[in-house]
Design a protein that fits this description.
This protein is of the alpha/beta class. Helix content is 39%, strand content 14%. The protein has a 5-stranded mixed sheet.
Length: 332
């Protein structure tokens, strides 16, 4: 007869398995109302937008003035992304809404939306940034332009016509707002986009900390962060990392080398806790919310319109967060 195992992991009921943490929302009533308000048309077409709907006649530029203001174009393109509409359906949807709430206003046609969308100036931020030092967390993700779905790829493999764009964002750790955003091709490395993202902030804006993943463990990233006088830099060195500037050299010690020395002394897990590196997961959460709400592909054919679609999604998500965010806690 086989003796029962005495190993604690093999005994029935022996040892608890640590699962994922369970969270509960404190302000569910307010957050539930915020989710409802996201679908209200008058939240997306505000009275201020209707007042600035038409372009002022005296622009100071040569040629015929534009009929619709930038506010009108951005409002229409935002409706397109929020409600997942083609351009022609966006024109009809907006026209029917304006007929009820503002009969004297016209909706821009689909051609105007396509042409103006290429050069429209976009500002992602909705809420003003205070002069308090920021903690910025960044991430990037691929967005499909065209190509096969997952089922076809699993059955027959992918074809050469699959094309992607890369969305780079910088998120405010305290509020969850997307402060920075840019779109590139899928051949652009993450480290190449850190400086262009930081340049979107005012030079006077103080930055207390920047938390990035190991893909940013490059010299150009540390130089860009030093130029912006970032106080704390939380970038985990690669597992095969070497010291760049040894301590016996009469020069300023590098932040990256100090992080590497600390990792070797206390371990990578402990260093992440000490440096608040785990807050970088908020950028991944923002990416997850973007793809959940707006999808993982863009419908535009030109790069300029694809960029406009992705940045408008970031702006729309920031508008949604102004309505309310969940205040959760870990269930014991």
């Amino acid at each position: 007869m086989k003796k029962p195992s005495t190993h604690p992991r093999k005994q029935k009921g022996g040892g608890k398995k640590k699962g994922k943490k369970q969270y509960k929302v404190r302000n569910w009533k307010e957050y539930n109302q915020a989710l409802v308000d996201r679908g209200k048309i008058l939240f997306w077409i505000t009275e201020e937008a209707m007042k600035k709907w038409q372009e002022e006649q005296k622009t100071g530029k040569r040629g015929k003035p534009q009929t619709f203001s930038n506010t009108a174009i951005i409002t229409a393109l935002t409706l397109q992304q929020v409600f997942h509409l083609p351009l022609r359906a966006t024109e009809g949807f907006l026209a029917s809404i304006l007929t009820r709430i503002a009969p004297d206003l016209k909706a821009p046609d689909h051609s105007t939306l396509s042409i103006r969308g290429k050069t429209i100036p976009l500002r992602i931020r909705v809420r003003a940034i205070h002069n308090e030092p920021l903690h910025i967390v960044t991430d990037s993700t691929g967005v499909k332009v065209y190509g096969e779905g997952e089922w076809k790829v699993r059955q027959h493999g992918w074809s050469k016509r699959r094309t992607w764009r890369k969305l780079h964002i910088g998120v405010d750790e305290s509020t969850g707002d997307i402060l920075l955003g840019e779109v590139t091709g899928n051949d652009t490395a993450d480290c190449e986009m850190l400086k262009p993202l930081l340049d979107q902030l005012s030079p006077e804006q103080p930055i207390h900390q920047v938390s990035l993943d190991g893909a940013y463990d490059k010299r150009i990233c540390y130089e860009a962060l030093k130029e912006r006088r970032v106080v704390n830099i939380a970038i985990p060195p690669q597992h095969n990392a070497k010291i760049w500037r040894h301590g016996n050299i009469q020069a300023e010690r590098l932040v990256r080398d100090e992080n590497l020395r600390r990792v070797r002394k206390v371990g990578r897990k402990r260093w992440k806790i000490e440096s608040s590196y785990h807050r970088r997961s908020l950028s991944e959460t923002a990416m997850f919310r973007l793809k959940t709400i707006f999808g993982d592909r863009v419908s535009a054919r030109t790069f300029e319109n694809q960029r406009a679609q992705l940045l408008i999604r970031c702006r729309a998500l920031n508008l949604m967060t102004t309505l309310g965010m969940p205040n959760s806690y870990v269930v014991a």
